[in-house]
Design goal:
Blueprint (H helix, E strand, L loop, with lengths): L8 H32 L7 H4 L7 H15 L12 H52 L4 H15 L19 H16 L3 H9 L1 H10 L1 E6 L4 E3 L7 E7 L2 E5 L17 E4 L18 E5 L3 E7 H10 L3
Antiparallel strand pairs: 1-7, 2-6, 3-7, 4-5, 4-6
Helix pairs in contact: 1-3, 1-4, 4-5, 6-8, 7-8
């Protein structure tokens, strides 16, 4: 369960490798204890300990030699310790057979993990190749091509956007009850920031669950990308989740919570605890400014049309 909650593919690969190594070390510990025990409790035959004249050595040193012998059975390496009687020969033969399976499985797991990571890193390369092919086939100017490529390398590739729901096709197969519960847990913290929805959470929790399930979506934006511009029809309420955004006001409006008097052309850095374009939920609203991402950003959007339909049908 711990590995399932790791978000980074690189971190997940490192965690898996550590898990494999720890498993092999634990297996080698028990094999070393068995190899040491065969010699320690055999007083009638020549053992690997007596063959190397280690009777007077400490138990710790003998254990280290046994661990070294065990590690060499699980990897293509050599040592100067060999079985000296029938019991040791049988034990060593069994360990070689087991080690062959374990080592092969370890190599296979590492190879699969590296290939999986390579596939993840392959997407930006494919995107860049398609952009280049598109520009060349349509005779786009060299200057524009350079600007697009510069934006791609410095904004698109370096973005660390969160994985969004629409990117996971499996979620379309989830039962509706699980989707409602997931949307409630994902979007309810955003709704609770707003005074009106926080009030509703104490009155009608089912209404907010329906809003979260039907009307709310996540959206990602690259650095420099417009979220909306002035003069366009507002389509919903925005809750910033991460990143940095800047709103440039071009005429009088009350679009930001706590900002009641802003003059023309005032720029405002949006804070994560603010919400944007609330009026679009209650009236037909035209944006009076431009909202732009000044860093890779994520917002949760409450769709105005979907919200209006829920309100109209609620309780009917």
């Amino acid at each position: 369960a711990i590995f399932d909650r790791l978000g980074s593919e690189h971190l997940l690969l490192a965690a898996k490798l550590v898990k494999y190594v720890v498993f092999i070390l634990m297996a080698n510990h028990y094999v070393a204890c068995g190899w040491y025990g065969i010699a320690a409790f055999n007083d009638e035959e020549v053992t690997w300990v007596s063959a190397l004249s280690l009777e007077d050595s400490s138990a710790g040193y003998q254990y280290l030699l046994a661990l070294h012998w065990s590690l060499t059975q699980f990897s293509p390496s050599t040592n100067n310790i060999a079985p000296s009687n029938m019991s040791e020969r049988f034990f060593a033969s069994c360990i070689v057979c087991v080690a062959l399976l374990v080592f092969s499985s370890f190599i296979s797991s590492v190879t699969n993990a590296v290939n999986q990571l390579r596939l993840v890193n392959m997407e930006p390369l494919l995107q860049e190749a398609r952009i280049r092919e598109f520009m060349m086939m349509r005779n786009v100017s060299t200057e524009l091509f350079a600007r697009v490529q510069h934006f791609f390398k410095h904004a698109y590739i370096k973005q660390k956007a969160r994985v969004r729901e629409e990117e996971i096709t499996f979620f379309t197969q989830l039962p509706e009850t699980l989707l409602i519960q997931m949307h409630s847990e994902v979007y309810m913290p955003c709704l609770s920031q707003h005074t009106v929805f926080e009030f509703f959470s104490n009155l009608d929790r089912s209404f907010l669950r329906r809003v979260a399930h039907v009307a709310m979506t996540e959206n990602g934006y690259l650095i420099g990308q417009d979220i909306f511009i002035d003069g366009t029809q507002a389509s919903g309420l925005y809750f910033p989740v991460q990143g940095r955004m800047q709103y440039e006001r071009v005429n009088s409006s009350k679009m930001f919570h706590g900002l009641d008097s802003m003059s023309r052309s005032v720029r405002h850095k949006v804070r994560l605890e603010e919400w944007i374009s609330e009026m679009s939920l209650w009236v037909a609203w035209i944006h009076c400014g431009r909202l732009r991402a000044s860093a890779p950003s994520e917002l949760v959007k409450l769709g105005g049309a979907e919200f209006s339909e829920i309100v109209a049908s609620h309780g009917s």
